[in-house]
Amino acid sequence: MTKHVTTDKALTDRVARVLEMIRPALQQDGGDIKLLNVSTCGQVQLQFLGACIGCPSNSMTLTMGIERNLKQQIPEVTSVVCS
């Protein structure tokens, strides 16, 4: 059974803009992130790329860096998950 995910274009655009501000810090260490989806309920789905894959600090980067920034700047963001 395929999981149906509904996206919100305006919310996705806002999330993408915030991620663009965060991205240079990740790229400086050889990593990156890819925005996969933003659901209408505010869940952001990301994918780590480059040096971020398998990095022991990626869970801290996700929660303390990315998720914290997104929630501060976009109140509609309810959670951030990485696949």
Describe this structure in words.
The protein is α+β, with helices and mostly antiparallel strands. A 3-stranded mixed beta sheet has the order 1-2-3. The protein is globular.
Strands ordered across the widest β-sheet: 1-2-3
Q: Determine the number of helices (DSSP H or I, runs of at least 4 residues).
A: 2
Global geometry: globular
Mean pLDDT: 87
At the fourth level of CATH, the homologous superfamily is: Fe-S cluster assembly (FSCA)
How many strands, what sense, and barrel or not for the largest sheet?
A: 3 strands, mixed
- Unreliable residue runs: none
The secondary structure category is alpha+beta
Order of helices and strands: HEEHE
- Second-tier CATH architecture: 2-Layer Sandwich
Query: What is the rounded distance between the termini?
Result: 18 Å
- Number of domain units: 1
Calculate Rg over CA atoms.
12 Å
Classified by CATH, the class is Alpha Beta
CATH topology: GMP Synthetase, Chain A, domain 3
- The percent of residues in helical segments reads 40-55%
Q: What proportion strand?
A: 15-25%
The total strand number stands at: 3
Summarize the model shown:
The chain has 83 residues and is α+β, with helices and mostly antiparallel strands. It has helices at residues 9-28, 58-73; strands spanning 31-38, 43-50, 79-82. The protein is built from 2 helices and 3 strands, in the order H-E-E-H-E.
